[in-house]
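1st attempt posting a full record on here, be nice pls
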Amino acid sequence: MNSKKDRQKSGNLVTPGERLAVIEEFIPDLGTYEQDGIIYSKIIGQALIDYSNRRVSVYPVKKEAIAPKSSSTVIGEVGHAQSDNVLVKIRKIGEKKLSGVFTGILHISDVQDRYVSSMDDVAKPGDTIRSKVKSYRNQRYHLSTTEKDLGVVYAFCSKCGGFLEQKDRQMRCSGCGRIERRKAASDYGKEALGRKETELNEG
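the predicted structure (as tokens):
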């Protein structure tokens, strides 16, 4: 087991069930539990790694932490993509920024009601996507975009990085003219995300 890979850093925001350390190196303390030799967080809070006493703890944040829950509608950025799923860095619940970055996964079976042959036609790395949390298991939020208002809200050309303008089910790059496909939300291009996206949309 690679203990460096499993270990969190002091001050990191962690969520319930998130891996912190291994018992060969640390003793589980406040806000943690041990299972099969791995120390996990019990709560949402900040990890504290006490190297001198070899203890790991999690302390709740002073104000109420904002984290996704089942049925939450979330906004995130698409990261690593495979043929049958994409990982999403969840950053917001509606208009509220989260207390940290949480990881979600969108599987091809949860994209829409009709058959989807490949996630390449759904979303690509760098896209901004709106989805709904179905569940939390295996330390990840499992997402869905089956509803009409869910899906990609901003997309960028995988060749030149230009903003993709929507036309029917296709997306045309405003820069190089490349045609791509996405599972777009009904209000594609209208989500208020930030200065960078606004400038790209207007440019």
